[in-house]
């Protein structure tokens, strides 16, 4: 396996190592009040992006989820009716 194939397969690990090396060389870029503004970037943009990507990777099986939701509603309705008596 050549270097190009290896980097193509392990691109995520390569990018993490590169980000760590760049942060070690110039930590002021990500410091509080720096050009990346981590107090805003991490709090809003990064968290929103992570949840958005997680949502995109979910399978959309509407019929199975509808059946599951209906059964959950029935069970919760039955449980609450027992509690209120």
Count of strand segments: 0
* Unreliable segments of 5+ consecutive residues: none
- Listing every helix as H and every strand as E from the N terminus to the C terminus, the arrangement reads HHHH
Tell me the span between the first and last alpha carbons.
70 Å
Pfam family, one: SBF_like
Protein name: Solute carrier family 10 member 7
Signal peptide: 1-23
Family: Belongs to the bile acid:sodium symporter (BASS) (TC 2.A.28) family.
Structure notes:
This protein has 85 residues and is an all-alpha fold. The chain has a domain at 32-58. Helices cover 75% and strands 0% of the residues. The protein is built from four helices and no strands. The chain has helices spanning 3-9, 11-25, 38-56, 62-84. The longest helix has 23 residues, at 62-84. The protein is flat.
Topology (SSEs and partners):
Elements: H1 3-9, H2 11-25, H3 38-56, H4 62-84
Provide key terms for this protein.
75% helix; flat; 85 residues; single chain; mainly alpha
Concise synopsis of the structure shown:
One of its GO terms (cellular component) is plasma membrane. The chain is mainly α.
